[in-house]
């Protein structure tokens, strides 16, 4: 079945540092890939997505590129801020065998803490 | 718009008790989902619905029932709560339910079963 693996956390960075959170996946169809972010005490919200190979999703300074050859969708940001402290989830939605009905398979989440 | 709302925000149950979690969305979305979030495991799909009057099982459906009597509401029931159901429960909705669609999440319900 489908699965998503994220790098182990937690990740602690100083403000303005470079961020990478690794994400790899296995899927039987042609998945769409997502990064969701969960700020403290809130639900998840979409950060960015990519729907086909070589697409780059971007939002709020974050980027991730859909790499089919390495089955990866790593999240990057050039300069993090304290306000980026949150839990980040990589996810996929696979349409193998027909419609997926949008069902998401999530990674385990990576806790990011950014210090001033 | 309120988006996706969940009631209650917190609940403590004793083993064997029952309860219903309510999810409501005001975006006229067709698809709705219930997930549970456990430490180190991400979110796992419990049940989902592709429209009013329809429901389907997700990855971890055992011990839960759902109903979608109105398009805007999706209820999650626990008939006989167990400590293994201690978790944070999230409801989500999406417009068409395709694999490219964005899901919109509620703020969550933190449930503790003693």
Describe the structure concisely for a colleague.
Chain A has 116 residues and is an all-beta fold. Chain A is built from no helices and 12 strands.
Order of helices and strands of chain B: EEEEEEEEEEE
Q: What is the CA-CA span between the terminal residues of chain B?
A: 36 Å
The amount of beta strand of chain B, in percent, is: over 45%
Question: What oligomeric state do these chains adopt?
Answer: heterodimer
Overall geometric form of chain B: globular
Count up the helices of chain A: 0
Radius of gyration of chain A: 14 Å
Number of helices of chain B: 0
Helix and strand succession of chain A? EEEEEEEEEEEE
How is the biggest beta sheet of chain B arranged? 7 strands, mixed
Proportion of beta-strand residues of chain A: over 45%
Q: Give the overall pLDDT of chain A as a whole number.
A: 93
C-alpha Rg of chain B, in Å? 13 Å
Helix content of chain B: under 10%
Give a written overview of the molecule:
By secondary structure, chain A is mainly β. Chain A contains no helices and twelve strands. In chain A, the strands form three sheets. In chain A, strands 2, 5, 6, 10, 11 and 12 form a six-stranded mixed β-sheet that branches. The model of chain A has no long low-confidence stretch (mean pLDDT 93). In chain B, 0% of the residues lie in helices and 49% in strands. In chain B, the strands form two sheets. In chain B, strands 2, 4, 5, 6, 9, 10 and 11 form a seven-stranded mixed β-sheet that branches. In chain B, strands 1-3-8-7 form a four-stranded antiparallel β-sheet, with no helix packed on it. In chain B, a hairpin with a 5-residue loop joins strand 7 (64-67) and strand 8. Chain B is globular and about 40 Å long. Chain B starts with a strand and ends with a strand. Classes of the chains: A mainly beta (116), B mainly beta (114). At the A-B interface, strand 6 of A face strand 5, strand 9 and strand 10 of B.
């Amino acid at each position: 079945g489908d699965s998503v693996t994220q790098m182990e956390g937690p990740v602690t960075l100083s403000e303005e540092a470079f961020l990478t959170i690794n994400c790899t996946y296995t899927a039987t169809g042609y998945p769409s890939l997502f990064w969701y972010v969960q700020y403290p005490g809130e639900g998840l919200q979409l950060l960015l997505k990519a729907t086909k190979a070589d697409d780059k999703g971007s939002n709020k300074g974050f980027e991730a590129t859909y790499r089919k050859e390495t089955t990866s969708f790593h999240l990057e940001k050039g300069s993090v801020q304290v306000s980026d402290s949150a839990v980040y989830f990589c996810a996929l939605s696979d349409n193998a065998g027909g419609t997926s009905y949008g069902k998401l398979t999530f990674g385990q989440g990576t806790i990011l803490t950014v210090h001033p | 718009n309120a988006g996706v709302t969940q009631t209650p925000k917190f609940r403590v149950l004793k083993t064997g008790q029952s309860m219903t979690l309510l999810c409501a969305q005001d975006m006229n979305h067709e698809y709705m989902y219930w997930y549970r979030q456990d430490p180190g495991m991400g979110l796992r799909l419990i049940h989902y619905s592709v429209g009013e009057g329809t429901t389907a099982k997700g990855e971890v459906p055992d011990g839960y029932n759902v109903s979608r009597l109105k398009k805007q509401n999706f209820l999650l029931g626990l008939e006989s709560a167990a400590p293994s159901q201690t978790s944070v429960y999230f409801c989500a909705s999406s417009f068409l339910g395709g694999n490219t669609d964005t899901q919109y999440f509620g703020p969550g319900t933190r449930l503790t079963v003693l």
